[in-house]
Write a structure and sequence with these properties.
Number of helices: 13
Distance between the termini: 84 Å
Shape: globular
Radius of gyration: 24 Å
CATH architecture of the largest domain: 3-Layer(aba) Sandwich
Mean pLDDT: 96
Largest sheet: 7 strands, mixed
Low-confidence stretches: none
Strand content: 15-25%
CATH class of the largest domain: Alpha Beta
Number of strands: 21
CATH superfamily of the largest domain: Aldehyde Dehydrogenase, Chain A, domain 1
Helix content: 25-40%
C-alpha cells in the first residue's frame, strides 16, 4: 500500500503543518479501508496565521486591475478542465458520490470560474444625472477585505468555487475552511488557482473542525465577511458569533424541498425527476426532493411505480460505473438518517421500501442506506417537516392544487420547489405563490445553473444569494461618488428647491 498523502495548510503561499502538529484522516465513505488523505487539525494559531497572510496580501490584490484578476480565474478554469477526470475521482473517494455526479461538481466550478471571470470586465455600477448643473455622479463596487469561507462536504468543489471565485474577482483575499470530511477537492481548486498565477496570501486554506478552526475564523476581528453553507442550526451560531462585530454574513442553509405532482402531470417525467431529486447524491443535497406532494387521482399509480423503481437502484461505491447512488458521508449522518426512519414509523407513516442499512460484503465497509420511501405521510409529521439529508422520500396526498401549495409552504424552509403539470395557469400560480428561492416547472428540485441566483427564504438563509448577477453582493461594498465641476458650492436639495 502506498503511503497516504499528507495535506498541509496553505498559508501565505506555503504549505504549513498545524501549529499543534495534530492531524486527522479523511476516508472513503464507500470503503473506509481506503484512506483519502491526512489533513491538519488546525486551531486558533493556524487561523490567525492564515488571516494575517490574507490581510497582508489584500492591498496589492485590491490594486490589481479586475481584468487581470479575471485572467487568473480563466487560466484556473482551463486547468480544471484538463484535470477533470482526476479531480472527479478524488472527489468520489472523499465524498462517495458516483463519478458522473463528481464530474458535475467539477464542471460547476469550471462554469463559475468562467462566469466570475467575466465580471472582471463587467463590474458595473450606475451613472445617473444629477439634479444640479455641472455635477456628475456614479456608484462603484469595491472589495471589503479578508473573507472567511466555511464550506460543506456535499459539494466540495462547486460550493468552494461559488464563494471563493466571486470574492477574488472583486479584489478580496480569502481564508477557507472546507468541510472536514471532504477537504481534498478544495485543495485541488486552490492548486489550479495557484498554478494560474494567484499571488501568495490571496487564498489560504485551513483544515479542521468547526469549534476549533471554524469558530476562530468567524470571530476573528480582521475578517469582516463570513460566508457559510451548512445546517440551519450551525448557521444560527455563525450569525450570533459574527453579530457582535457587525460582520457581513451570508448564510446558505437547509431545505425541505417539495415536488408537487398534479393529476395532469406526465407520470414518466415525474418518475425520472423524483428519483433523481430524492436519491441523487444519496439525498445529501440542500435541494434534494424530500417531499412528493401528489394529487389523489394519480397518487396510487405514481407511488407504486416509484417504489418499484427505487428498489432497483444500484447502490454502491461511486468509483464503480454501475453505481447509481453512493454512500452516506459518515457514521453520524448514517445514524441520523436511520433515526428519522424510526421516527417516521413511530409517527404512523407507512414504510413502502428501504429504511435499513445495507450490509454484507463490501457494504460492511461503507455507510450505505437503502433508498427509502414513506407513504401515508401527513403534513405535521417530523419526516415531512425536518431536513433529513439522506435518501428518504415522504409522499403526501392532497385533493387539489391549493392544498398542495399550502402543504408545500408549511415548513420552516424555502429553498427549492417543483411542479409537474400541463396546466399553464397552475404553473404561473406556482411561480407566484410558492415560498422558495428556486422554482422548477416540470423538472426536479435540483439542477440550478450558476448564471441565476441561488438561495432561499425563511430558515434557508438570510437573504443573500450565491451565483447569478448577485454573485458579488456578499463580497463587495457600494460607494456613491459625486463630482461637482461647477466651481461653486451647491447645497443639493437646498439649492434645488422647487
Amino acid at each position: 500500500m502506498a503511503e497516504p498523502r499528507v495535506f498541509k495548510n496553505f498559508i501565505g503561499g506555503e504549505w504549513r503543518p498545524s501549529a499543534s502538529g495534530k492531524t486527522f484522516e479523511s476516508r472513503n465513505p464507500a470503503d473506509t479501508r481506503e484512506l483519502a488523505g491526512v489533513f491538519q487539525d488546525s486551531g486558533v494559531q493556524d487561523v490567525n496565521a492564515a488571516v494575517a497572510a490574507a490581510k497582508a496580501a489584500f492591498p496589492a490584490w485590491r490594486a490589481t486591475p479586475a481584468p487581470k484578476r479575471a485572467e487568473i480565474l480563466l487560466r484556473a478554469a482551463q486547468l480544471l478542465q484538463e484535470r477533470k477526470e482526476r479531480y472527479s475521482a478524488d472527489l468520489t473517494r472523499e465524498m462517495g458520490k458516483p463519478l458522473f455526479e463528481a464530474g458535475g461538481d467539477i464542471v460547476e466550478a469550471i462554469g463559475m470560474a468562467q462566469y466570475a471571470a467575466g465580471e472582471g470586465r463587467r463590474m458595473h455600477g450606475v451613472t445617473t444625472p444629477s439634479e444640479l448643473p455641472n455635477k456628475f455622479q456614479m456608484s462603484i463596487r469595491q472589495p471589503i477585505g479578508v473573507c472567511g469561507l466555511i464550506t460543506p462536504w456535499n459539494f466540495p468543489m462547486a460550493i468552494a468555487s461559488w464563494k471563493m471565485l466571486p470574492a477574488l474577482v472583486v479584489g478580496n483575499t480569502v481564508v477557507i475552511k472546507p468541510g472536514e470530511d471532504t477537504p481534498h477537492s478544495t485543495f485541488n481548486l486552490v492548486e489550479c488557482l495557484h498554478e494560474a498565477g494567484l499571488p501568495p496570501g490571496v487564498v489560504n486554506i485551513v483544515t479542521g473542525y468547526g469549534p476549533t478552526a471554524g469558530q476562530p475564523l468567524v470571530e476573528h476581528a480582521d475578517v469582516p465577511v463570513i460566508s457559510f453553507t451548512g445546517s440551519t442550526a450551525t448557521g444560527r451560531l455563525v450569525n450570533l458569533a459574527a453579530a457582535d462585530k457587525i460582520k457581513r454574513v451570508s448564510l446558505e442553509l437547509g431545505g425541505k424541498n417539495p415536488v408537487i405532482a398534479l393529476d395532469d402531470a406526465d407520470l414518466d417525467l415525474v418518475m425520472d425527476g423524483v428519483l433523481w431529486g430524492a436519491f441523487g447524491t444519496a439525498g445529501q443535497r440542500c435541494t434534494a426532493t424530500s417531499r412528493l406532494i401528489v394529487q389523489r387521482g394519480v397518487a396510487a399509480e405514481l407511488t407504486e411505480r416509484l417504489v418499484a423503481r427505487a428498489k432497483t437502484l444500484r447502490v454502491g461505491n461511486g468509483l464503480s460505473p454501475e453505481t447509481e447512488m453512493g454512500p452516506i458521508i459518515n457514521q453520524k449522518q448514517l445514524d441520523r438518517v436511520l433515526d428519522y426512519v424510526a421516527i417516521g414509523k413511530s409517527e404512523g407513516a407507512k414504510l413502502l421500501c428501504g429504511g435499513g442499512r445495507l450490509t454484507g460484503g463490501d457494504y460492511d465497509y461503507g455507510f450505505f442506506v437503502q433508498p427509502t420511501i414513506f407513504g401515508g405521510v401527513s403534513r405535521d409529521m417530523r419526516i415531512a417537516r425536518e431536513e433529513i439529508f439522506g435518501p428518504v422520500l415522504s409522499i403526501i396526498e392532497v385533493a387539489d392544487f391549493d392544498e398542495a401549495i399550502s402543504v408545500a409552504n408549511d415548513v420552516p424552509y424555502g429553498l427549492s420547489a417543483s411542479l409537474y403539470s400541463r396546466d399553464a395557469n397552475h404553473a404561473f400560480r406556482m411561480m407566484r405563490d410558492i415560498e422558495s428561492g428556486i422554482c422548477y416547472i416540470n423538472a426536479p428540485t435540483i439542477g440550478a445553473e450558476i448564471h441565476l441566483p441561488f438561495g432561499g427564504v425563511k430558515g434557508t438563509g438570510n437573504g443573500h444569494r450565491e451565483a447569478g448577477p448577485q454573485l458579488m453582493d456578499a463580497f463587495s461594498e457600494w460607494k456613491s461618488v459625486y463630482v461637482d465641476y461647477s466651481g461653486s458650492l451647491q447645497r443639493a436639495q437646498i439649492d434645488n428647491e422647487v
